[in-house]
From TrEMBL, chain A:
Protein name per UniProt: Translation initiation factor eIF2B subunit epsilon
GO CC term (a single one): cytosol
Self-association and partners: Component of the translation initiation factor 2B (eIF2B) complex which is a heterodecamer of two sets of five different subunits: alpha, beta, gamma, delta and epsilon. Subunits alpha, beta and delta comprise a regulatory subcomplex and subunits epsilon and gamma comprise a catalytic subcomplex. Within the complex, the hexameric regulatory complex resides at the center, with the two heterodimeric catalytic subcomplexes bound on opposite sides.
Signal peptide: none
Transmembrane residue ranges: none
The organism of origin for this protein: Umbelopsis vinacea
Occurrences of domain W2 (ranges): 541-707
UniProtKB/TrEMBL annotation, chain B:
Major localisation: cytoplasm
Localization in the cell: Cytoplasm, Cytosol
Protein known as: Translation initiation factor eIF2B subunit beta
Any one GO molecular function term: translation initiation factor activity
Subunit and partners: Component of the translation initiation factor 2B (eIF2B) complex which is a heterodecamer of two sets of five different subunits: alpha, beta, gamma, delta and epsilon. Subunits alpha, beta and delta comprise a regulatory subcomplex and subunits epsilon and gamma comprise a catalytic subcomplex. Within the complex, the hexameric regulatory complex resides at the center, with the two heterodimeric catalytic subcomplexes bound on opposite sides.
GO cellular component: cytosol; eukaryotic translation initiation factor 2B complex
Bias-annotated ranges (Acidic residues): 104-123
Region feature (Disordered): 95-144
Keywords: Cytoplasm, Initiation factor, Protein biosynthesis
Family membership: Belongs to the eIF-2B alpha/beta/delta subunits family.
A Pfam match: IF-2B
Organism: Umbelopsis vinacea
Length: 710, 398
């Protein structure tokens, strides 16, 4: 890799006006938008009546990208068909070349980049984005900053820089941040190098961040920023896909790649940030962001990327006061009320006394009389009959909502589904046109944990003429993700509803976490105060106990199956590593366990055989004088515990000494230590018994030294 | 589309730059539009004028749909259409006069002396009274200004029936170079001299020791004041023009040429107005009723001026004149990102508040006293005449 990287880099230096490449990862590799994404890829879902990928390509086009690779996994044919029919592939329309790369095997961002590396498509620094970016940013400054680091004449030269993350300054509770996937960037403000990255899921609440102390040696000043919106726009060097190939277990761009690069001493690569203050950038990775980004577009934060710019050539929207956008041939009845922030696609009809606020309505929709639509997203050809009320929901193409039906916050109705008449869908209902598949993405066992509190999902009535299937909200196949993180990320989710659900996770203070989340910044600032040392100690103690229990099990298995010492030692090391346990804990467990193996009916020969074999195991977990003293203390306590074991103490001491597990210095120190005298009467008695042995040892030593003297 | 490949690419890139607002300001837009249209005339195949007119109309529709708020695009397209029609009419009429000149060179020779006016060529057919002095007129090389005065008679209105009896479909050779010539001289050369044309009139309007107020950054106004400052000393008060703060930029530019300049906040405009002798502002576009689309805050300045009976001068080039009528005063406004008004990082707040940031104001014609354009000056009530002179009424809707 390095040779290839260097070669290309050298090439890049002298060739300033080479092609700017960009890679769009069209797949989300998660199921946030199910059941919608079951039929249509996420990047083709309409946002303000324009397919999402149109915004991304436009953004890249603004930034001057000339060659775009779209890595498509799920529904690759649809993406390909869309691109081929879009304005981008018209022959002489632009200098932009778009190629769709089929990568059907990919299950993660990491896989997609490995695929790219395998195909050798990337020949220069490139822009890496998800297929869900909405931005009006011009990347030229960020690109220039990235390139200048490679040049030796610039201010902050860093040949090891491999990536520049483009971030947008926001605030910590900004609606455009991905709820449930926030992250903290630790940045050196003088060079804008990113020195540490920490994902911050709200559940379980993270109370501390560990930062490598070396960072403070190398950087005079660092900033911890929890206010950044991460639109996942990265300017990458050619080495990046290759790095993914080398580290085949990297899956995520941020939590694996960025963390991996920043924490690795071997790679020696650096990552920079470019923080934009003035332009807009966000991505839509969950339905909560779908809502907030759509609203930002309607409220013109993304200007000039607003509906009347008509990203799709067939559209003609007109803007009027109150952020109302109307397409052509829109028929609004005289008595209907269209309030602020509404977009209505061409050919849509709105009936008498209907009210529409904060919503996007697609093309050729039919909306009946006395309908109330509030904060909803209706896609194309939707039919809404009389008396329907819809709040903050997404309704996909060709769906039909029959009379007097009510959809509460956060419902998602998929393509072609019919609902009603006269039913009420509770909050967060998801209706798919196909039954929910039961593949490994949707683990069945989780179902019971994930149901929405007191509402049993299967009870939801879709009405007499209703078609469609209820989908339940399943997590990703990512085990260590708290399901609550997914819930807060969904459309119109009300944080109050979290407490309705069952207690999840081991934290008991979910109520206080909620308070933190829903309240404003002042509480946030006091995060440091909410860290209780006692609590963490209890937690730690619990962990140690668990570790010890596992250790006991593994050692008794070793005895029962008569493993070799090496094997047992390996197993112990493995356990210790995974649980991050200490050697002290290991000794606490194995010394008594070994003594317990002695057959008490014939103690002397038995302890000899036992210690002959397993004594060395104790040796393997004992690394110094202090440790040896510790072993003796354990031995003393354990033998003092039971009457029958009293007589084993001295032989054990002797045998351990003979095996060099404990040395004489350690024995002297144990004997001399205060602790050995204060462990209860029977233990003290054992110590007395050892006096003889000590004396013998001392004499032997004196003799030795005498001999030496002569 | 019959456009050549290279031209089509050029058009597409212009359209996307318009959409992305990478090209802003009516001057730049007008210039690029004119260059594109000239290329269309020269590189596309057309046998008679109807085809050409259709091509230009189609293209014009596309261009102005890309950014309907940049009225200069449509204006230039209408100018070109008018020129084509005039050339056709003029050539049909004066075929025998310049009939020999089908080659480019002779065309050049012809139109060299016919500096400004194929219009007059065309007028000749029905305005024989005026037509007789056309030749002398042009050879004297008098700048175009007097022309407008001569043409402003009501006579035209009564006799103007020409469009019916002109056959645009007639095969016409040698029309192409003539049209290109006209576009070059009538539009592109004109664009290059607009600032000078307006600035040259500065001394007629600005007198010594006056206090002038302006708002926003307008190159036209800047050149106008700079030119006046060469001869006279006066004081300028600039409103800072929040939230873009263009006014500060303007003040810096004026101060740099030695004008005594004061920057005030927008909210102080009314208070200061009593000391002001004249308000001079620029415009983004002038509409058919004499109203103007100008930088946000202009309406406030104009209203304050009206209250204090302070005259308001609008410096505007003729290409900014649009035959469109403002049926809805928001129709030509652009609301840009509210970022400058309320920062996007106020996340929780922007979720609840609606923030508007209009870039332009509509100033009604009754607030304007005089338009100073590159060929002279006119009151708002006279704008309809200027429009009739510049555009063909058939082309108002592209």
């Amino acid at each position: 890799m390095p040779s290839r990287g260097k070669q290309k880099q050298a090439h890049g230096d002298n060739d300033a006006d080479q092609v700017l490449q960009a890679v769009i990862l069209s797949d989300s590799f998660n199921s946030r938008f199910m059941p919608l994404t079951y039929e249509k890829p996420r990047c083709l879902l309409p946002v303000c009546n324009v397919p999402l990928i149109e915004y991304t390509i436009e953004f890249l086009a603004i930034s001057g990208a000339q060659e775009i690779f779209i890595v498509a996994t799920m529904h690759a044919e649809q993406i390909k068909a869309y691109i081929e029919s879009s304005k981008w592939s018209k022959k002489n329309s632009s200098s932009l070349h778009i190629e769709v790369v089929h990568a059907s095997e990919c299950l993660s961002v990491g896989d997609a980049l490995r695929e790219l590396d395998a195909r050798q498509l990337i020949t220069t620094d490139f822009i890496l984005v998800g297929g869900d970016v909405v931005s009006n940013m011009k990347l030229d400054k960020a690109l220039e900053a990235h390139r200048s680091r490679k040049r030796s004449d610039s201010k902050h030269t860093d040949k090891n820089a491999i990536m520049t993350m483009v971030l947008k300054a926001g605030s910590s509770y900004h609606p455009s941040r991905a709820r449930g996937e926030e992250s903290v960037f630790v940045v050196d403000p003088s060079t804008s190098e990113c020195v540490h990255y920490e994902p911050m899921e709200p559940f379980p609440r993270k109370k501390r961040i560990d930062i490598n102390a070396e960072i403070f040696e190398r950087h005079a000043e660092i900033e911890c920023r929890n206010d950044l919106i991460d639109p996942l726009i990265d300017i990458c060097s050619v080495e990046v896909p290759a790095l993914f190939s080398e580290n085949f277990d990297w899956q995520h761009l941020r939590s694996d790649f960025v963390r991996g690069v920043l924490t690795s001493d071997i790679l020696g690569k650096t990552i920079y940030t470019y923080i934009s203050n003035d332009s807009y950038a966000a991505r839509i990775q969950n339905s909560q962001q779908y809502d907030s980004v759509s609203r930002d577009i309607l409220k013109r934060w993304t200007f000039p990327i607003v509906p009347e710019t008509n990203l799709q050539e067939s559209d003609i929207y007109q803007f009027s006061r109150g952020n109302i956008y109307k397409g052509t041939r829109v028929m609004l009845s005289k008595s209907c009320i269209i309030e602020d922030n509404v977009q209505i696609g061409s050919g849509t009809v709105v009936g008498e006394n209907s009210r529409v606020t904060n919503s996007v309505i697609g093309k050729n929709c039919k909306i009946g009389n006395n309908v109330n639509i509030e904060g909803a997203y209706l896609w194309d050809n939707v039919v809404i009959e009389d008396g329907v009320s819809i709040k903050r929901s997404i309704i996909a193409n060709d769906a039909v909502i029959l009379t007097n039906t009510t959809l509460d916050n956060g419902c998602i109705v998929s393509f072609g589904v019919t609902i009603g008449p006269s039913v009420a869908l509770p909050k967060y209902t998801r209706v798919g046109s196909q039954p929910q598949p039961k593949d490994d993405y949707f683990d069945d066992e989780e179902e019971s944990d994930e149901e929405e509190g007191d509402i049993a999902v299967s009870d939801i009535d879709l009405g007499e003429q209703g078609t469609g299937y209820i989908w339940t909200d399943k997590g990703d196949n990512d085990e260590d993700n708290d399901p609550r993180n997914l819930k807060v990320a969904s459309l119109a989710f009300d944080l109050k509803d979290l407490s309705v659900g069952k207690e999840q996770g081991d934290d008991s203070d979910s109520a206080s976490e909620l308070g933190d989340l829903s309240d404003s910044d002042d509480e946030r600032d006091s995060v440091g105060d909410t860290w209780h040392p006692e609590q963490s100690q209890i937690l730690a103690a619990r962990k140690v106990e668990e570790f010890k229990r596992e250790l006991e099990q593994s050692i008794s298995r070793a005895f029962a199956e008569d493993h070799t010492v090496e094997l047992a030692a390996l197993e112990i090391t493995g356990l210790r590593m995974s649980a991050n346990g200490s050697y002290d804990d290991v000794r606490d467990v194995i010394v008594p366990a070994i003594i317990n193996q002695v057959d008490l009916s014939k103690p002397m020969p038995s302890i000899r055989t036992v210690l002959k074999k397993w004594g060395s195991l104790i040796g393997k977990v004992t690394h110094g004088k202090d440790d040896q003293v510790h072993v003796l203390h354990i031995l003393q306590v354990h033998c003092a515990d039971k009457e029958q074991l009293h007589k084993l103490f001295l032989p054990a001491l002797q045998l351990l000494y003979d095996d060099d597990v404990v040395e004489e210095d350690a024995i002297f120190r144990w004997y001399g230590s205060d602790r050995s005298k204060q462990l209860g009467p029977s233990a003290t008695a054992l110590r007395e018994k050892a006096t003889v042995f000590i004396k013998w040892l001392q004499e032997a030593e004196e003799e030795d030294s005498d001999e030496d003297d002569e | 589309m019959v456009l050549s490949k290279a031209l089509e690419a050029h058009v597409e890139s212009f359209i996307s730059r318009l959409k992305r607002r990478q090209i802003v300001g009516s001057y730049e837009v007008a210039k690029e539009t004119a260059i594109i249209l000239r290329q269309v005339v020269s590189t596309t195949r057309w046998s008679d004028a109807t085809v050409l007119i259709q091509i230009i109309k189609d293209l014009g529709r596309r261009l102005s749909a890309a950014q309907p708020k940049e009225l200069a695009v449509g204006n230039i397209v209408r100018r070109v259409l008018k020129i084509i029609k005039e050339v056709v009419r003029g050539e049909l009429e004066t075929d025998d006069i310049m009939g020999s000149g089908t080659s480019e060179e002779s065309d050049d020779g012809f139109s060299d002396d016919d500096e400004e006016d194929n219009e007059e060529d065309s007028d000749r057919e029905f305005k024989s009274i005026l037509a007789q002095d056309t030749e002398d007129h042009t050879s004297d090389a008098i700048p175009a200004r007097p022309k407008l005065q001569t043409e402003s008679s009501m006579f035209n209105l009564l006799v103007d029936q020409h469009s019916d009896n002109v056959d645009y479909t007639a095969k016409s050779y040698g029309m192409k170079p003539l049209i290109i010539q006209e576009i070059n001289e009538e539009i592109i050369a004109d664009l290059e001299t607009v600032y000078k044309g307006i600035a040259d009139q500065a001394l007629e309007h600005i007198h010594a020791n006056e206090v002038i107020m302006t708002i926003g950054y307008s190159r036209t106004v800047k050149d106008f004041l700079t030119k006046a400052a060469l001869k006279r000393s006066f004081q300028v008060i600039v409103a800072e023009t929040s939230p873009t703060l263009q006014g500060q930029e303007m003040a810096a530019a004026l101060a740099a040429v030695g004008i005594e300049t004061t920057v005030i906040t927008d909210s102080a405009v009314y208070a200061v107005m009593s000391r002001v002798n004249k308000v001079v502002i620029g415009a983004h576009a002038v509409l058919a009723n004499g109203g103007l689309v100008a930088v946000t805050g202009s309406q406030m300045v104009a209203a304050a001026a009206k209250h204090h009976a302070t005259p308001v001068l609008v410096c505007t080039a003729l290409y900014k004149l649009s035959p469109l009528f403002p049926y809805d005063i928001d129709l030509f406004n652009v609301c840009v990102t509210p970022d400058q008004v309320l920062s996007f990082s106020e996340g929780t707040l922007i979720d609840k508040a609606d923030v508007q940031n209009p870039y332009y104001d509509f100033v009604a014609p009754e607030f304007v006293n005089l338009f100073v354009h590159n060929l002279g000056s006119a009151p708002p009530s006279y704008v309809y005449r200027l429009i009739n002179d510049n555009y063909d009424s058939e082309d108002t809707i592209l």
